[in-house]
Specification:
The chain has 121 residues and is mainly β. It is built from no helices and ten strands. The strands form two sheets. It has a six-stranded mixed β-sheet, with no helix packed on it. The chain has a four-stranded antiparallel β-sheet with strand order 1-3-8-7, with no helix packed on it.
Length: 121
């Protein structure tokens, strides 16, 4: 059974950092690309970042240079290091499957609780 558990969100001031984690069970990251999307209530879901099986990465333009995606296959966990956070990064963040070739396609299905990121002074 597929289970995703996101964690690491919180309240941070503009310019601050957070590290999100997504613990995956039910399938092996050696064989599947995983990434993150975010959603603000009432707004369209937005694919943020993806890491493929060969470590090809994709980033939304607005987070390039600030966010870094990584994974630990031994722990079956995907991470999103978020630096220089801005108020517009405020959203619920969810991990999801995505395109293995870095083309920025996401399935936008939330299989876990997500983790809330709030950037505010």
């Amino acid at each position: 059974q597929v289970q995703l558990v996101e964690s690491g969100g919180g309240l941070v001031q503009p310019g601050g950092s957070l590290r999100l984690s997504c613990a995956v069970s039910g399938f092996n990251l050696d064989y599947y690309a995983m990434g993150w999307f975010r959603q603000v209530p009432g707004q369209k879901r937005e694919g943020v970042s993806c890491i493929g099986t060969s470590n090809i990465t994709y980033y939304l333009d607005s987070v390039k240079g600030r966010f870094t995606i990584s994974k630990d296959n031994a722990k079956n966990t995907v991470y999103l290091q978020m630096n220089s956070l801005k108020p517009e990064d405020t959203a619920g963040y969810y991990c999801t499957s995505c395109d293995d070739e870095g083309r920025g396609n996401f399935d936008f299905i939330s299989r876990g609780p997500g983790t809330q990121v709030t950037v505010s002074s």
